[in-house]
Specification:
The chain contains 10 helices and 15 strands. It is α/β, with parallel strands linked by helices and 270 residues long. It has 2 domains: 63 residues, Arc Repressor Mutant, subunit A (Orthogonal Bundle), CATH 1.10.10; 185 residues, Rossmann fold (3-Layer(aba) Sandwich).
Length: 270
Amino acid sequence: MNGEDNGQSGYQLAISRQRLILEALERSEVLKVSQLTSSLNVSPETIRRDLRNLEREGRLRRVYGGVVAVRDTDVKPYEARTEALRDEKEEIAGCVSRLGLGGKDKRIFIGGGSTTMSVAKHLAEGPPAIFMSNAIEIAAILNRSGRHEVELTGGKLHKNYELLTGDAVAASAGRHRFDLAITSTNAIDPDLGFLEFFESEAILHRILARHARTYVIVADHSKFGASANHVTFGHAAVSMVVTDREPQPRFCKVFADAGVELHWPGSKKI
């Protein structure tokens, strides 16, 4: 199967898989090994090894045939997720800031996620703009600056973290034209393009690709070569990708061939 562990690259794949497992568990609370085997395209033995590692870290609890979530009532999910690759996410946010993508009176959509939250903190100090988001905490960050007009999409508040979900989110985004859209992604495949673990995110991102003049994906290095089960769109659907380190040559080539700008700290245009 694809995505099996092999040496150093296997370690990175394992970290990426485990992140996707935890994100899925935040939303569904119960997962079966068979579901994860199918969605991540790896063997049951590989999934069970990932689950054992995560259980040892206290991140989940194994039950017959699958796993259940372990909740820490003292830690908000966004706070926990922000801890992972914190420095890398800040580097990505700095790159976005230095690219000067914001601007006075621009209409900007920012999707939910810990990486986009770092980006929002930088944009909050930029020129006055008109923001829309489906992430309550991101909207609050932008609003606290007092510089911007901030609008939340419609939608149902997710019970585990401060994110609006459902058809109303896509409907809200679909009624607007954006100068700039910034979202994260679950996985970047060299052949298929961008992938999401959940179909609702893929649908929202397709709408943004059609409605934004500039569409930026922010993704740390663990997303390159990772796996998820919903193909959102091909590489050429976005304007640029901003990451924390130079990707492998095959990814550099595929984005160059697609006409997509690729940026990281130290790249020529940063």
